[in-house]
Amino acid sequence: MAFAGRQSEHFQVVGQGGTSVFVSHDVGRPRVIPELGASIWVKADRPGIRIFARVVLPRTVDPRTQTPVLLRLEGTSYTHVGRWQMLELGNLPELLNQRIRGLRLQLGPQVDGREAYVDQIHLNLYGGPGATNVWVDELQLVGYADSALSVSAGEGRTMSSGPAFEASPVQPALGGTPVGASADWSPRFQRDGSVEVQNRRILPRAIRYQGESLARLKELGFNTIWLSQPASRAMLDEAASLNLLLICPPPDTIRTLSDDDPLAPVAKIGPEYDAVLAWDLGSDLSEQHVGPLQDFARRLRAADDSRKRPLICRPDSNLREFSNFVDVILVGQSPLATSLELSDYAKWIRHRSLLARSGTTVWSTVQTEPSPGLMEQWTVGGSRASLPPSINVEQMRLMAYMAVASGSRGLLFESSRSLDAADPETRTRAASLDLVNLELELARPWVSSGSLLGTARCSQPDVLGAVFEYHRTRLLVPLWIGPGAQYVPGQSAAHELKFTASGVPESNRAYEIVPGELRRRERNRGLGGVEVTLSEFSLCSLVLFAEDPDLVAEVRRHAKEAGPRAARLYRQLATRKLEIVEDVDRRLANRTGQWDTSDRLTSARKYLQSSDGAFAAKNYTDTCLNADRAMRLLRLVERSNWETAVRPLSSPIASPATVCFTTLPWHWSMVDQTRSWRAGPNLIGGGDFESVASVMAARWGHFKHAAPNVVSDGAIEAKAARSGAAGL
User: Percent helix, strand, coil in the chain (nearest 5)?
Assistant: First the structure.
């Protein structure tokens, strides 16, 4: 059977699941120029066969392999089952530029696409479980300009149809054991920064351990426990029995046998530590820690040479120096209830990764509680007037999604109090974390081992849409990050929200992943990419672009399995939010200038009743939808009350009681008290900054944190005065 001539090349692929079996053909080194294109004639008994070009970036070295970066650009897909069809590759410079933009988010701005060339043409022959027969003929390149030799741009080349393709094994659809491979139950750190457990890539979701039951933490969806001390044997055994991973400082045995002999051998780390994923080398690190920690890291790697676990640390400065000898850099702040906008915080995370060595894996922290300082202020002055400060589920979801949308390969949920406590605040925090973990698990294949391609355009400017690629699929992760969301998020919802994602293959369909099901969404080819419209968007979502029916079925199964638990959590969180909003609203009822919130509260109660009815009928998707609609209305009540309180202030942080919704009654109580106050003398020693002598007498200090290309200094000067003769 041949398309032209007497013969063609025949392949038969038999698989049990997965997404790809690639064959390749060397084509020399043609430059990536607009004239370059490739085509091949294909006939198959199943659809989905696709042509790719493997591109080499000779000016950019992959830090993981120390070889030039390799990219795979995709062409058209086979659809005419049983007939010959030409698959084509074209417009390669534009496809390459799109990939380079995404690659720069991972490796830094030094990624250079100049002098790029194609070295192989690939075909993905996998058509799904069972047998797939594929015939190929007439592979041709046009616009061939050799990167080493001068060849005219219009010249074409027809490649030999002999047995020149080389096959690669079937890969699993959403992770798991590849066909013919054996299971491996120990965690493995991969070159791309992802973590593999049981032959499946995971997103490490760690919680700072505060003495809770490990079984309880696993129930809340965490797969990793972060310890502040070396793990005891009992902790190691319990974690292993629950299939939980640990991150902790290395065992105390990793030290020199004699302080006078730094070259003395160290004790080897044995199999009892198999549950440990990574070694924590410390936090709040600066320039003075680089040398000693580098020596310690060298000894630790020698002691752990059988497992080669990654080393992780959290430096305040000198990220490049630390990244020379650790594998993972942990970054993070506590932006909630501060003046740092969440959109700026996302930029900060991306910028921190650029300060480290190119290719260094970055993990991020997620704030789950108010800062200790805010809690102390409320305890002293506000505990009688208001509910305690709190971080709501919307803010936790935004923090977690922002981290992965900024390229983080792992998350540490910061926690200073046990999640085992039975008070309402702790139960709400635990339920919020449970929901976040459940949603992140649905996005796991893309955020754990996919490539971050860039962002999608949205019709709403406050919405950020990150796009991930995993095998032949894309995942769009839209987030509504409006101004002031670090204090009190707004409604963060809209109807008919449009996104435009570039690089989505024509054959991909669009699905919105919602708790309980996968919903088909209409997509259209528009200017600059594929347009998809979400009829009802709220805060964040997951949109899948895929054509593989097996993968779509697997995602649908995961969404359905998550439905009952998600429905229970949505109802619990919406009910608690209604209780809090009603409590605060009652305390503010007699305050002049407040919004009339009765209609919104009434509508929220009705949506909760509808949610309860859907839950009783086991309609878990509508349970979540109606609970979410109730929470949108409650966010409007929260936001309107907050905006009224902060309107007279120069900034929301001018009052410790206006940085979140629950403390607004405390704020108005302070307003009433301070109306009769008269300003007294400054009680902070040297706080008027009138002279160097008074500042030094009050023991003020000048502390610096070294940072590349940053020079800082402080002085008492007349031009800094707001009052008096001088200022700082």
Answer: 30, 25, 40
